[in-house]
Amino acid sequence: MKNGRLGIGIIGALICVAVLIALVGPKFLERKPEPVSVGTSSTGQTVGVTAKGVVESGTDIELSSQVKGTIRRVLVEDGATVKAGQLLLEFDTTKIEAQRRQMMAALAAAEARYREMKDGYRTEDVAMAKSGRERSQAVVTQAKDEFDRQRRLYDKGATTLVELNRAEERLRVAEGELGSADANLAKFRYGTRNEDRGQARAEVERARAELSFVDGVLKDYRVYAPISGLVAGRFRDAGEGADIGTPLLHLINPETLRIRAELEETDVGRVKEGQKAEVTMDAYRGKVFAGTVAKVFPVVLKKTQKSFDPMASFDINTQKIHVRLDNYSGLKNGMTVTVRFK
Predict the structure, then answer these.
(1) What is the pTM of this model?
(2) How far apart are CA 86 and CA 228, in angstroms?
(3) Is 50-54+256-341 a domain of CATH 3.40.980.10?
């Protein structure tokens, strides 16, 4: 009997423990971690507040493709030092250079036409126009004489209506050619009309604009370094294609390195700009880098963080800060660090 009562008691105790875990366990598992801080000194400066951070460059540039095409060559490797204005990458320009040559030829032709209208015509051009007009006049005279002859013969019944109509048609054609010759000669004698010169000038401006546009696009086929610094990423190789917006290279300026860290909301009021800080990292165990809080950003960021329970999570608020170090010797962009504020 005693053993039976003891077994029942143990089972009852286990049931109570299970109920207690079911009621309290989730709240315990989802409890937010406490921030690491140790009070405040009499001067108001934080003692012992820490935050995780990363080394980053204040000048961080990703160069993307401005054109669609095939990469002809990449002139830098990952980690290379570059100077501002240095050529880094070049696309194949065969097609666009062919278009440019066509546009240059079109511009030259348009300028020649406008110059001819603006400056007048050569003496030999005028002489040729006069000679052409005289030939046309002779043809008209001959055609008119033939038409008159055929009409007299027709009136006498010595020719057919078909022959008369043919003679009349030849006369009309000759008179039309004479009219064209007169207009051509008048152009040489009196010059071109203002509207013709205006149209020729507009053609020149249009050809120049098209060439200028192609020259502007051609510049985008070559990628230059906008800053002096390091190549932190190379994303394309020679022979590969790229669309507009495709990332090509990543540049940073190592002279603008800084520490970016995030404070938990509970520590925000304990860290101020100008406050001293110490930075440590696993890469240099035992070494401490001295620094100063350079910037406390006025925006609080919300982050979702997993709890011990894989099915649960909670939100935490953080504030971004920048720390400037006295010495960055040996530090690399992307290193993780721990910041301790004094």
Answers:
(1) 0.54
(2) 9
(3) no
